[in-house]
Amino acid sequence: MNLKLWITLAVGSVSTAAIAQDSNELVIEGETLVTETAAPAHLEDFDTIYSGWRFRSSETQALETDDFDNPAFVFVDQGLDLWEEVDGSAGKACASCHEDVEDFAGLRTKLPRVQDGELVAMEDLVNGCRTERMGAEPWKWSGGKMTAMTALIGLQSRGMPVGVKIDGEAAPFWEKGKELYYTRVGQLDMACSNCHENNYGVMIRADHLSQGQINGFPTYRLKNAKLNSIHARFKGCMKNIRAEPFKEGGDEFKALELYLASRGQGLSVETPSVRN
Amino acid sequence: MKRAIGLAAIAAMTASAALAETVAPTNVTLADGVIEVSLTGQPGDPVEGRKVFANRKQGNCLACHINSDLSEEIFHGEVGPPIDGVADRWSAGELRAIVTNSKMVFEGTIMPAFYIDSGYERPLEDFAGKSILSAQQVEDVVAYLMTLKEE
User: Which chain A residue has the Cα nearest residue B128?
Assistant: First the structure.
C-alpha cells in the first residue's frame, strides 16, 4: 500500500475545498447581500462562512437576483393572499391584528428563539396565532400554506444579518443541536459535518457541496418546483444517508435549526432563495 | 431406513459447507488492514463490479471517486481520491478490507463501510440490519478494482 501517495491526494482535496466556492456577488434588486463573512467564534474549524448561493451554478444564481425571475415569488404572493384571508372560529385574518407584514422585519434573523422555556421556530409562531388567536387549524409544518407564509414573513428581513441568541436560556438547545450535527447516523453512517464541514466546495456526484447554511429558507428548489422548509431539507439529507429522519417541528430538528442558524451568524437573510 | 438417514446427513453437510463459504458481516476477520480470503470463497466478477461501482443504489462509489474507466458516466464526485491505478497501490486483500469496512483502515473516514450490518444508528427501516452491499457485490467490486492498473 502507498500511504504517502494517499496522504498527498487527501491534502490535495482539502486545499481545493478552501477555494471552491465562486467569487460572485449577490445583488438582489440593487441591494448587495452578504454571502461571505468571518466565521462566528464558536466555529473552530474554518475561518469563513459562505451562503449556499455561492456554490450554485450561474444559471441558478441568476434566478435569485431578480424578484420577477425568482420562482419563489409566486408563493410569496400566495402568502399575501393568506395574510388577508379570514379563517377559523374567531373570524379573523392575520391582517385583522397585524397591521402590516413589514412589521416583521428582523424577526427571521432571530429565530429560532427561546420563549417560556421552549425553543420556538417561525412555524410555531404562525401556528400559535392560528390555533390560539384565530381558532383555526394549524398548518402542516412544511405544507404549501406554511411555507408561503414563512417566505412572506422571512422576506421582510432580507438583507439583514442572521443573529440568533445562543447563550443563556438558549445554550442547552444550542448544545443539543451541535451534538446532533456531529453525530453519525444512518446505514451510510455519516454526520452533517462529514459533508457540510469537512467537504464543502467539492462535488459529491452531481452536487456541489455547500456549508449547508439555512439563511435562505424557505428555499425554492428547481428539483421539486416548490418552497422547501428548513426541516424538510434536514429530512431529505437524513434520508439520503439512509437515516430515519427526526420529526418535522420536533425538538431535535428545532435544536439543529438553532445550531445551523448560529453557524451562519452574519450572513444576510436571503429568503426566499433559489437552489437546485 | 439407515441409508436414507445417511443420505440426508450428507445432504445437510454439503449444504452447510456451501453456506460456510459466504462469510456473514459479523464474522469477517479484518486484521492489519487486510482481509485475505474472499467473502464468498469465489473470485468476483469485474464486469458486475464495474456496474456496482457506478450504481447509485449500490456502491455509488462514483459519488466520491473520480474514475477514468467510467468516463461514460457524467458525474464523478471528488470527496475521496481518484480511483485510477488503485490496483498499483493496494493488494486485493487490502482493497477487500477498504470496501468491507473503510473505517478500520482510514480512521474517521466519511467513506461508508459496505459490508457491516450493525453498529450504525437510526437506519431507515428498510435498511436496518442490512449491509449496503452483499458479499458477492463486495467481491465483484474488489475484482473490478484489481483491473484498475496504470503501471
Answer: A187
CA-nearest residue to A208 within chain B is: B77
Which CATH superfamily hosts domain A73-155? Cytochrome c-like domain (1.10.760.10)
Class of domain A16-69+165-275: mainly alpha
pLDDT in tens, A37-78: 999 999 987 899 999 999 999 999 999 999 999 999 999 999
Domains and CATH numbers, chain B: 24-145 (1.10.760.10)
Q: Does B114 touch chain A (CB under 8 A)?
A: no
Please give the C-alpha separations between residue A42 and each of A224, A255, A268, in angstroms, as whole numbers: 34, 16, 19
**Contacts with B, A 1-20, CB within 8 Å:** 1-2, 5-6, 9-10, 13, 16
- Give the Cα separation of B135 and B139 in Å (integer): 6
Instruction: Give ranges for CATH 1.10.760.10 in chain A.
Output: 16-69+165-275, 73-155
Among B74, B78, B120, the residue with its CB nearest the CB of A187 is B120
For the question of whether the overall pTM of this predicted structure is more than 0.80, the answer is: yes
